[in-house]
Amino acid sequence: MRVLIATGLEELDGIISGELSSRDIDVVGECYYREGLLSLTKERGADVVVLSPHLPGQADTVDLVRELRMAGLRVIFLPGRRDDGKAVALARKAVSLGVYDIVWDPVSPAAVINRVLNPATLAEAGVEPEGEVPGIAVKKPEKKIPFWMRLFRRAKPAAEERKIPGDDRPWASPETGGKPGDIFPEKTPGEELPGAVGNSPRKAPLSYWLARSPTISPEKRAGRLLVVYSSASGVGKTAVSMTTAALLAGRGCRVCLVDADPTGHTLTEHFAGLPAGRYAFEAVRPRGWTFDLVPGPVNPADYGRDSARMVMALRDRYDFMIVDSCPGTLEVYEHIREYLAAADHIWLLCTPEAKAVGAVKRFAMSEGRLVPSLEEKLTFVVNRSYPLAPRKPAEVAAATGFPLGAVLPEDSFVESLFTGARPPRPGERADFLDAVDRLAGGLAGGLKTEKGEDVIESQSRVRQRRPGLRVLEGARR
């Protein structure tokens, strides 16, 4: 047996190589980039490859596994954590290519060596293959029930009768996307879900999250998705997102604000006063707010496409779902790319500073092409505009190549929101509030309030009764 190690983790490579050599197994070398892996296996005469997605290179992981399998090599695959949807998807694709030696994180050298010495079967892979496996028919054995037990079998009790005493949480139902009784994710005895806080696991079936929300009703709503985005930091995404949510809630809309920024957790920790990681991916109602919040997890690695899809499954419970995005490229933050692809409206924020303008120009030339129908749903917003700014709003728009959609002024009112860690209060007047209100008013056309009134007409009557904006009725205590 000749083993080539290609995990991309130098320390792990060294430990595995040493352990295998101590067992008289021939280690033919280590590979440090994907593009040279296949040629190196042929050059060294390897017949077993230990591979992980951490191996640097541009080649696709699944394509690399396919090439290795077509060359007749056995692959021991280290996809990642079992609770990571992306890792599970990679493992399923690998199993469909005949790779059954799967080692999940946390990886121990002993587990890798065990797989090298003892090849696994399809049943031991731990995941079902994606699609059909050629030449293999997997049939689950039917559970046989004696004839006398079928005569006296009792019907299963209803979901309400199966509730645990003292547990008043709503149970999943066909309306929420799950089967009655599905509250907690499945786990093996003695195994704790990683990242769990109390009874709120970090990863769970979709029916669990739908059932946990205290403010969602089965009634379907418009479900419009607004993403406040900029790849630059410090352009005011959080302030604009929170103010827009408050204003739309004040118009009578049902609104959910999503904290999708793994770098700061400003909405979750600073404004809502919740510890990061608690109620992750749940819809909760902070004290004094008139709209819901979906906090994010502690670990930035838990943000991904699966988490975005899990959150967006709640869209039809709200009139608006507003995503406070994070700075950075779409290649790094796949969950933001997923939100942008599914968005109905995108507010692209930019300030007059050169750093922000450069970030937007890079987005327009490269990453913007990854977002389908970008021009149809994008509104270019120049934030923090002031008379002595280095560029006027029209010059910012001309430099970036996007048509100017709205201008938000520099206002000390925004600083007071961050200082007081609160949303806007009733009766407050500010230029920033008025500008955001005009921008948000264009989103609410055609929507109805809870009383069946038109959103925009209802808000105009509220303004006639008292000055200021009817938004949140109380700040966080």
How would you explain this protein's 3D organization?
With 477 residues, this protein is α/β, with parallel strands linked by helices. The chain folds into two domains: 2-124, 3-Layer(aba) Sandwich (Rossmann fold); 224-465, 3-Layer(aba) Sandwich (Rossmann fold), CATH 3.40.50. It is built from 17 helices and twelve strands. The protein has a seven-stranded parallel sheet with strand order 8-7-9-6-10-11-12, with helices on both faces. Helix 9 links the parallel strand 7 (255-259) and strand 8 (292-294). The radius of gyration is 27 Å and the shape is elongated. It starts with a strand and ends in a 12-residue tail after the last helix.
Helix content percent band: 25-40%
CATH architecture of the largest domain: 3-Layer(aba) Sandwich
Determine the number of helices (DSSP H or I, runs of at least 4 residues): 17
Query: Using only CA atoms, what is the Rg?
Result: 27 Å
The beta-strand count equals 12
**How would you describe the shape?**
elongated
Question: What is the residue-mean pLDDT, rounded to a whole number?
Answer: 75
Query: The biggest beta sheet, please?
Result: 7 strands, parallel
Supply the CATH superfamily name of the largest domain.
P-loop containing nucleotide triphosphate hydrolases
How far the N terminus sits from the C terminus, by CA atoms, comes to: 66 Å
Look up the CATH topology of the largest domain: Rossmann fold
Structural class by sheet pairing and helices? alpha/beta
Instruction: Tell me the strand order in the biggest sheet.
Output: 8-7-9-6-10-11-12
CATH class of the largest domain: Alpha Beta
Order of helices and strands: EHEHEHEHEHHHEHEHEHEHEHHEHEHHH
